[in-house]
Amino acid sequence: MKLLFLILLITSWCSCSSSGKDGVQKSAELQLENVEAKRLLQGVWINDDSNVPLLFVKGDSLRFIGQSDDPIEFKIYKDSLYTYGYDVMTYKIDRQSEYDFWFHSLSDRIVKLYRSENLEDSLYFKEDSQREPMPIYTEVVQKDSVVFFDNRRFRGYVYINPSSYKINKPTYSDEGIRLDEVFYDNVIHICVYEGSKSLFARDMYKTDFKSFLTDSFYEQSVLVDMSFTGVDAAGFHFTARVGVPESFIHNLIGVTISFNGDMQMELKEGTITSQENIGL
How many CB atoms lie within 10 A of CB 253? Predict the structure, then answer.
């Protein structure tokens, strides 16, 4: 009888453990995290090779020097550091103590850090309130052009509007650490007038040009600019530029709006499409 009761008790416990409830899973995850290792990592850490601050850890987030976006959430499980930015990155920990932190970079290089004892070293890592985002434009930019066709006067307007759409551009430090730079995409409004009469008006997004771009290029690029280039029998012509921030890599795409309001697009000659320098 006692044996039967014991079997029933074990069966009941196993059933509860495998129920898959969120609370149970979350509790198990917290038990796996190395809380002591996270506590030891708090503070500023200096690169042993260059004697320059490289890493600042505060609470559940960290920031590498030169990182332009928000602090990255991190966790330590067993002997590995996991960062949760645009992608999840894993860095194997080789050695950790109160004064030393060694880990393997993504390029399989051992990065050796030692703890800073200078409180002013934290000034190398600016807080969000001290930093400004890196958009292409910080305010609405208006461009207008006047053209004549068939003895008629047309005016084309372009309004470049900064948006809150974030674009993540991954870069890698000399130590082989992934740094996601954040830029902000633009929404561009185009319109054409004949006198005071509006003939066409539309908001243009980067998604409108996705079919002309590779997937990796699309993910890292922004809708940089748009220009009204003229009007002829085919309709109204604009040229859009989609490019990777802080590089010379871009695509020029011709946009033609017919007098019936139909839109056609084509990749223009002379477009810079080489992607060798951005790791695509």
Answer: 22
